[in-house]
Amino acid sequence: AESLLVEEQPLDAAGHPDKTLLLWMVKPEKHPHKPDDIYTCPDYTRGSHYTGPTRVSLADRKTGKIINTIEIKQEYNNGEDSFDVPYAIRKGYQYAVEGHPKAGEEAKPHLLLLKDYNGDGKALEFALFDAEFCMGLETTLIGYSERQGKVIQYPIRLTEEGERRATESHWCDYLFSEKPTAPGKWKYQVNYSGRGGDLEKYDIRYSPEKEAFEGTHTAVSGD
After folding, report:
1. Which of 199, 200, 198, 203 has its CA nearest to residue 214?
2. What is the largest CA-CA distance in the chain?
3. Which of 64, 122, 127, 221 gives a 20 to 30 Å CA spacing to 114?
């Protein structure tokens, strides 16, 4: 009774007509964006949005039962169990919008826009984005695992230069906003040197056997 269904995406086109994905929130707060206000960088992934605990569930369309649910937490902010989900946003940013809104107008976004992100030839995944600042874009990938028969949030395991063990997260800077160099492979860099940071280099690929993204992260000093 205290939850809000934000969007539903059946998996018919992906060959699973008996399954559907549900994006929902628990007691969210509503934050409309004033039409005359300019968009600041965080608005690129928020616009007019809900804030609150966010969940993605896989449901059986025949029985109406929930198969499993994952929690979308801000692992980059001490695991905060809250997320900003746009319900209206301007076109031209990370989320596709419905219809053909005029410049500066907000429209309903299609958040559960299924694509083949992992390069396996099946459009079963969607990405979520969080632009906290003008530099830096947190991205995560969620999708239906045919092997496990449930919805998963894909782990990302990165080995830092000079380290032997990889660190695991479900979020990675810019990853799912970048164009892959080949199906399931990414090689890109983010330059923070102009802001007193480093040149961040990423080399990442998808492992079908592990259903995870693995690779290396190297930070090159801008000094």
Report:
1. 203
2. 60
3. 64
